[in-house]
Amino acid sequence: MVDLHIHSTFSDGNLTPAELAQMAHDVGLTAAALTDHDSTDGVGLFQDACVAVGVDGIPGVEISAEVTHGTMHVLGYFVDPASDELQTLLVQIRKGREIRNHAILKKLQACGMALTWDEIAAFAGEDVVGRPHFAQAMMARGYVSTKEAAFDNYLGKGKPAYVDRFRLGPPESIAAIRSAGGVAVLSHPFTLELGRKALKALVVELKGFGLGGVEVFYPEHTDEQVAQYLGLAQGLDLVATGGSDFHGASNPSIRMGTGFGSLAVPHTVVTQLRVRATAS
Asked: For labeling, which of 120, 129, 200, 263 is most exposed (least CB within 10 Å)?
């Protein structure tokens, strides 16, 4: 069993890369991929720790792509973290996030919340501050009772403290991953909020840009969605991947490897991705 979608303190996870590697071993995974948001800074630490515990540590990334409908994330597997082209783009994306974060803080302050940058950054760990960290700071202050309330009332799209940020388009996101020797995979397709025909048309288009896979097995996918996405991947000769989207304490109901309890992604997926990465 493998988990190809986990996050560390180098984006919005609660565990360090070394802690994730140890957990992967402890829960019986044969392979795991570190897919931090818009960053590969933790990959080296993760792979070193995976070697030490006997887990196949896969270098990955998750890039936020700009779309007109819903939300798109593109996972990259077997990327070379030393790729100058990839790193230049990731720095640009993170800079856009930094500008957005300070704008969010100002909006929350305008809403009467006496939050400071330091207390929000304290929830972020070693690197990238994201909206979940704002939600945690708001909860700690008692402004909201849950993370969902923070997003529903303030941080979500169209809400008083929402601020958009710079993102690459889907073709550029895929190209960035492929330029670093990686395989690009469409993450959790349901967040695009598209019907069957529209989603298939989009995936066909993305394959034309070099998409290599679709994340089929995911904790929040229904049985119907799994069947739909699996059929889509098989019909278009794309790798059907999967992962828990593990973040740690920020979402304790999700467990590494098994998600809500029934996730089971076979090691054969890693083999398929490795073959495609080698061929690209």
From this structure: 200
Write down the CATH number for the domain with range 98-155: 1.10.150.650
The list of the chain residues with pLDDT below 50 reads 127
pTM, entire model: 0.83
pLDDT score at 70: 82
Beta bridge pairs of residue 98: none
The pLDDT of residue 157:
84
Q: What is the dihedral angle through the alpha carbons of 250, 90, 179, 84, rounded to the nearest 10 degrees? A: -130
- Residue the block writes with tokens 């190209």: 175
Which sequence spans correspond to the domains of the chain? 2-90+166-279, 98-155
At 128 the pLDDT is: 64
Task: Tell me the pairing of strands 183-186 and 72-77.
Answer: antiparallel
Q: Please give the pLDDT value at position 23.
A: 98
DSSP the chain: -EEEEE--TTTT-SS-HHHHHHHHHHTT-SEEEE--BT--TTHHHHHHHHHHHT-EEEEEEEEEE--SSS-EEEEEES--TT-HHHHHHHHHHHHHHHHHHHHHHHHHHHTT----HHHHHTTSTTS---HHHHHHHHHHHTS-SSHHHHIIIIISTTSTT------B-HHHHHHHHHHTT-EEEE--GGGG---HHHHHHHHHHHHHHT--EEEEE-TT--HHHHHHHHHHHHHTT-EEEE---B-STTSTT-BTTTBTTT--B-THHHHHHHHHHHH-
